Structure formats: C-alpha cells, structure tokens
Fold:
Amino acid sequence: MTTEPEQTRQQVTTTPVDVDELMSQVADGDQDAFAALYDAVAPRVYGLIRRVVRDAALAEEVAQEALVEVWRNASRFDRARGSAAGWIFTIAHRRAVDRVRAEQAATERERRTARASVPFDDVVEEVTARLEQHAVRRCLDALTRVQREAILLAYYRGLTYPEVADRLGAPLPTIKTRMRDGLIRLRDCLGVSWR
Amino acid sequence: MTDVHTLAGAYVLNAVDDLDRAQFSRHLAECPACTAEVAELTETIAALTPATAETPPDRLRAAVLARAAATPQLPRETRRAPRRNAAHWQRWLAAAAAVVVLGGAGAVGYTIADHSRSGIQSAAETRRIAAVLAAPDARMQSVASGDGRVTVVTAESQNAAVAVLANLPSPGPGHAYQLWVIRDSNPRSVGVLAAGRTDATELFSGVRGAQAFGVSREPAGGSVDPTTPLVAELPLA
Structure:
C-alpha cells in the first residue's frame, strides 16, 4: 500500500526532475535527449490520452501529435512556470480533449440528440478503481463527491465545465468553484508544491 | 480574488472553451498569484498520470522520434534558434537508416526501417537526406498506393527531395518501380529501383520549378518514358 504521505510526495516529485533536465536539452535540439524524454513520459502520455479518447489506434495518433508538438515547441517551455512533465501532460491532455470534442461535434451534426442520449457513464468508478493501488486514491476519496466527479468528468471525459454542470445538474458557478476547490484540496493532500 | 480567477481549476483541466481560455490567459499575465496557482494545480493533475500509465506500442516510439527528426523546432523567442547538430543527425540516421513512412488518417509520421531495405548508398547521401528533411522549408506530401505509401519531402532551398516508397505492391516478375520528376509535362527519370523492390528511400535533385513527382511500374532496368497510368503521383509545386 502506498498510502503514506512520504511515498505520495516522492511519487509526485521524483519523476519531473530528470524530465526538466531533458527538456532543456530538447529545447537545444538534442534528439538523443528527446528519445530519453520519450522513454520517461510516453507511458503516462499515452495512457492519459487513451483514457480520454478511448480508442487505442486514435490514442496512438494523438500521442504522436502531442509528442511531436513537445519537440516542436520545446523552446516555449518555461521552467519558471511549472515542471516539464506538467507541461507535457497538459499538451497531451489538451490534444486528447480537442480530438474528443471535434468528434463529438461531428457526431452532433449527424445526430443532434446524441449528447443527451449518452448515458451518464461510470467514469468516476472506473477511474478510481484504476487508482486503487495509487496514493492519489486516498486523496481523491477525501474530496466531496461533486468535487471528485467534476474533476474526473472534465479530465477523463474531456467535458467543459458547463457540460459537467449539465451532467451533474449543478449551477455553473458551483462547478467552476468545485473544480478549483477540489484541485486545491488534492494539491494539499498530495503535498504538491511548485517552488 | 476576481471572478475570473475561479476559472483556474477548469483552466488546468482543459474544461474551458477557447473564449474562456483566452480570457483566463490574459488574466494570468497580470496575476502572479494565479500563475503560481495554475502551476501547482498543473502539478497536482500530473500526479494522476502514473495511475493511468500504459505502455504504448513500440512503433509509436519510432514514429515519434523520426517525425521529430524531420520537424524543425520553433526558434527560441529571445535568442537565435539552435542550429541542428549534424552529428545527431548522422547518428540518428546511421543507426536507423531508412525513413519509411507510416500513414495514418490525416497524419503521416516517419518510422525507422531496416537498413537493408533502404537503398541508401553512403554516408554522404545519408547526410544529404538528413539535410533535406531538416530544411526549414521542407514540405512533406504523401499518397497511398495499394497497401503502401509514397511520400516525398521537398526542400526547394536545396533543390532536392527525398522520396520514400514503403510497402508498395510487388511490381511483378521482371519489373521495377521508376521515379520521375515532371516539369512542363516532361518526365525526367530520377531513379530506378532494383527489380522487385517495394521499399526505398531515394534522394534526388532538380525539383525547383518542377510540377510533380511520379512513380511508374516499368520493365526491370527502367524505361525512357514512364508507363501510364502512374502508380503514384504527387504535386511538387
């Protein structure tokens, strides 16, 4: 079990150290560093994208786009504003979400009622089950139900906060606030700090 | 805390539309506290990623690395773009050798292929291929042919291009694929593959002002003029 705070912190902070260093080499055009960077982050990038887009082949395509974007935009990464790993996962998540939304838009053009008929999925259960072995599970459990569901629906289903509000039947400002409060509580629970 | 500030959570979760994002980004520029919060919340979300980590297929690595190798980086904003290191390129291509193209829906990436299939002749040619792929004005075009794919990366600045034939159907016994550059409707042969060969990486020059690149199926050894219809054709202009 990895529920001790010590281990939690370690999990959060050890990985990005190397990645930061690699990232600055990548920004200098170092392709060997990029290969090492790939090895360090690809499973998390691919796994995250696959969670969001669902389809394995699509996940591979989106992961490729995201990682090439990391290479291409390496000089834009600003270490003063966050870790390289955080920056990379943001790019990966953004790409995945953009793809999901584009496909939803296409589906809706064909079937305007599509979204309304999508059953409320068991995303929360599914994701928390996967998190079972991870320390973050304990911290997610410490959130209120609305905080947790709002965060997980947005993160793993690519929903916008108005869509989350719609799904959870809660007012817009509430959802906006719960997402932020929930993440702050998660941050404190995980002991994440930045500088 | 202003109202826009409460968007920090939705913002780091990418749960905003473009309008919200633009608005919040503007806000960030003038709010150091928000910048710090966004950084911390981004790290927080990053802490969720080990839980969903999954080993991607091996081909993703080859595709990503080779595509990166062919993709110029954005220059740094404050100083000149780093010049690409030729030594890296050599190592890269020497180890890998041929660049074969992997086609996907709407996206084309490179993957590294077995050297023995590449047809690359020498280190000098490898360097020139790398130079074409790395040229700032390099343009890539690709077309499917049967189950295979023909891709051309053109660098006008170098008056050169690299054609990659991958997994084409067999040309048949006693036949070979031949490559052409077409200018003002006049085809000029730029290479003939060995008989039966279905994969190749070929460097050729004289692309400036040319309109098209074509691949034809010919009797082994090639022909003076291409047999039509062409197996594949791509615009160069």
About this structure: Chain B touches chain A through 63 residues (CB under 8 Å). Residues 72 and 136 of chain B are 6 Å apart (CA to CA). The two ends of chain B are 55 Å apart (CA to CA). DSSP finds seven helices and ten strands in chain B.
